[in-house]
Each structure stands twice: as C-alpha cells, then as structure tokens.
C-alpha cells in the first residue's frame, strides 16, 4: 500500500475547513466528506435534514452546493485546478459531488478576494442602513449566479417587491401557526449558553424585529423567549429592506439545487467583497403554494429557491460550525 503524502492530507483538511464555512439551512451543516488521496467526496447527511420544512431535501442540496463552491475555491487558492463532478453516481443518492486536483494554475486576484471572505461572511437578519446597493454589484451578482448554472432576478418594481414581501409575511405567519414546523425549527435554535456547534445561535439574530417598507420578516428563531442581540446600527434615517432578488433555476432537479447552492455562495462571497451584507428568506419557498405563486407571478416561470436582500449594515452576528474532525472521514476507515 502506498502511503498518502502528508501534503495531500494537509490539502484535504484545508479544503474541508473552508467548505464547512458555507451557509446551510438553519445551520444544519448537512454534509460529510470522505477523502481518498487527491479526491474529496461530498455526501449529504440525511440525518441532518428537515423532514417537515424540506421533505425533498432541496434546501439540503443547496447547502451542500454552497459547501462545494467553497471546496472548489479552496482548491483554486492552493494553485490547483479543481475537477468537479456533480451527482456522479445515480446509485448513490447521497453523493453530491467529487472534487479532485492534479493540474496547477496560478491563483488570480479575484479568487483570493473571494476566499478572504469565506470566514468573515455572515448571514444578515433584519433591516439595512439606507442607501442604494451599487448597480455594478447587482450586475456582477447576476453574472455570478449565471456562471454556476442559476439565475439572480432582481425584483426592482415596487409592486413586485411588495408582492414578494407579502409572500414572506404570509409564509412566516403560516409557519408560526404550524406546531410541527415550530418544533422542527426549535430543534435547530439552541438556547443561550448552549455549547452546540450547529443550529442558529442567539448571537446570530436580532432581539427585535425591525420593520421596513416593504417588510420581509425574519424567522422566529427565539420562539418567543426574547433571545437575540441588540441592533448595532447608528443610522438616523429609517432603515430599509435593501435590494431584493430571487435565486432561481430553469429546472427543478437535484443538479439544479446543487447549482443553486454554488451560485448562492459565489454571490454571498462576491457581495461580501463589496462590503454588502445579504439576508436570506426561504420561508415562502418551503410552502408549495407560495413557491408556485412566486414561480408563475414573480420569476417568469423559473423555479425559485431563495428570496435574497442585499444592503449595507454593521454586522455583529456570530455563528458556529462543527470541527473538521466531526465531518471528515478517510475512505480507508469509512465506506458509505
Ligand atoms: C437553503 C438555505 C436557506 C436559508 N434560509 C434562511 C431563512 O429563511 N432565514 C434566515 O435567517 N437564514 C436562512 N439561511 C441562512 C442560514 O440560517 C445560515 O447560513 C446559517 O445559520 C449559518 O450562518 P452564517 O451564514 O452566518 O454562517 C438559509 C441558508 C440556506 C443555505
């Protein structure tokens, strides 16, 4: 048996450490990685799924897609060209992607800048400081989504923005009345002082909802307990909802979901390089009738995956992640 060079192991650990910084629905971190020499296999961890909110595993695949983007970026930043195959084996439903590296190419400045945001980026929850989001950034974000096989549709028309906000309000109202959904969310929203390294910690959401016009309510992670952090903004003018967009794909298959996740992470990191924060709303997408309304009325027939809001904000959110050792396995020890 040939020994794996230490270098290969170091590369794997670095790549996985970057991958796990990706956003995931309710910070479920629904992934595990199996290393085999110069290749990493990314598996969806069904045990971390949301059977009530996400019965098809669509949000789980988006989350894994975001981790895949980080893994590809990490390989690039080591000066290798990632070779990626998405859903390589129809017989293994959980196998989301495989990434390997052999050939080298110099890292470019843009990749370095994106990579610099991987650990800094945080999901924003609530309102933004007043002021427009640069048009050039929105154009760049649309290009980012397209490069990954998805689309970002900016919803600029006032009537359409209001309609989209209304879907988030309706969904949030509905979700709060559904005991099963409330219980599922509570399982991923640990109480203050929890030592858990997953779920949405109280340090990552505001203690009070801040109304904007139109209003895109956040999820009730505190479940009425009054947990959360006070807002940091010193803005005197009324705070705003920000630029609003829909992340969509042309079809609604598992490969589209993985692409949507890669597109999401490329956009989040790109926005972060501009100092722009992003809020994510999946509430109306989790209710099939509202998702269908958005698809037919607001996204031109394309399949929506997330409502996104972009804006300026002072961020103080702190999130958590599991250790690399909890999610990385060697192909010699574990054969899934
Ligand atoms: C598919 C998907 C759906 C999400 N939906 C929401 C949402 O509805 N509301 C929200 O506040 N955050 C949402 N998030 C953000 C996650 O809660 C966030 O990524 C996670 O808590 C980790 O925090 P971080 O992004 O700050 O690292 C979503 C993320 C993903 C990938």
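Q: What amino acid sequence fits the structure above?
A:
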């Amino acid at each position: 048996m040939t020994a794996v060079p230490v270098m290969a192991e170091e590369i794997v650990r670095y790549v996985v450490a970057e991958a796990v910084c990706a956003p995931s629905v309710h910070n479920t971190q629904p992934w595990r990685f199996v290393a085999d020499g110069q290749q990493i296999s990314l598996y969806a961890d069904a045990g971390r799924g949301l059977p009530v909110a996400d019965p098809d595993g669509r949000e789980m695949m988006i989350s894994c897609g975001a981790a895949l983007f980080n893994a590809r970026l990490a390989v690039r930043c080591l000066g290798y060209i990632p070779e990626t195959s998405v859903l390589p084996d129809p017989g293994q439903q959980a196998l989301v992607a495989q990434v390997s590296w052999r050939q080298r190419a110099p890292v470019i400045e843009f990749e370095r800048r994106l990579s610099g945001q991987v650990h800094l980026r945080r999901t924003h929850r609530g309102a933004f400081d007043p002021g427009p989001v640069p048009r050039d950034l929105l154009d760049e974000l649309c290009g980012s989504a397209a490069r990954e096989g998805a689309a970002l549709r900016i919803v600029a028309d006032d009537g359409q923005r209001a309609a989209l906000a209304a879907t988030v309000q309706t969904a949030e109202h509905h979700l709060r009345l559904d005991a099963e959904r409330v219980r599922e969310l509570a399982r991923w929203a640990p109480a203050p002082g929890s030592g858990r390294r997953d779920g949405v910690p109280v340090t990552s959401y505001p203690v009070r909802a801040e109304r904007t016009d139109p209003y895109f309510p956040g999820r009730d992670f505190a479940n009425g307990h009054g947990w959360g952090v006070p807002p940091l903004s010193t803005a005197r003018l009324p705070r705003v909802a920000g630029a609003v967009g829909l992340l969509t794909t042309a079809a609604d298959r598992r490969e589209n979901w993985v692409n949507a996740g890669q597109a999401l992470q490329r956009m989040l990191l790109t926005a972060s390089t501009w100092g722009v924060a992003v809020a994510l709303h999946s509430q109306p997408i989790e209710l099939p009738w509202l998702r269908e309304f958005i698809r037919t009325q607001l996204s031109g027939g394309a399949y929506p995956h997330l409502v996104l809001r972009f804006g300026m904000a002072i961020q103080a959110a702190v999130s958590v992640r599991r250790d690399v050792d909890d999610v990385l396995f060697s192909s010699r020890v574990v054969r899934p």
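Q: And what stands out in the fold?
A: The chain is about 35% helix and 20% strand.
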